[in-house]
Design brief:
It is a single chain. With 173 residues, this protein is an alpha+beta fold. The chain has one domain: Peptide deformylase (Peptide Deformylase), CATH 3.90.45.10. It is 27% helix and 25% strand. It has three helices and seven strands. The strands form two sheets. The protein has a five-stranded antiparallel beta sheet. Strand 6 and strand 7 form a beta hairpin. The longest helix has 16 residues. The structure holds nickel (II) ion. The site of nickel (II) ion has 5 residues, from helix 2.
Length: 173
Amino acid sequence: MALLKIVHYPEQVLLEVGKPVMEDEFNPELAKLVEDMFETMYDSHGVGLAAPQVAVSKRLFVMDCSGGEDESQKIALINPKIVHVEGEQYGDEGCLSFPGIYTKVKREMRTVVRFQDVKGEKQELDLTDLPARCVLHETDHCDGIVFLDRMSALKRELSKRKIKKLQRTGKWE
Ligand code: NI
């Protein structure tokens, strides 16, 4: 396994729509990418990491809202598709591509997501609370949408100002 480099906003790959993973791409190379992404996510103490964040413009992400405590929550979602959302939650959110930025973001409370696992098998998950927030955030990454786009106008402005300051002081690459 290997640690991958996480790219930071406004790297172009974060703003592009990821390509679907094709049927012939479910191979050992994909399995290695997924394992490396898990290792990179745990190393950075994140609960989710999408392929565009490691400069791979593809529709897949890994997540584990238990932080490595519960094996059943360690999931790789390939070609995720949100098929249902409902309700609302308002809570703190961060992103490994925005180091040091944590802010309240409104998301749906529940989501149903269809995806393929690393073997290419079709799966579906019905999630609420933090796992739902994580799936929505990471599926956005696959669509070239970053959480800055989901903030209120005021919080977006404050976050952009903070990013500029971090860039100026060399704390953001
Ligand atoms: Ni993110």
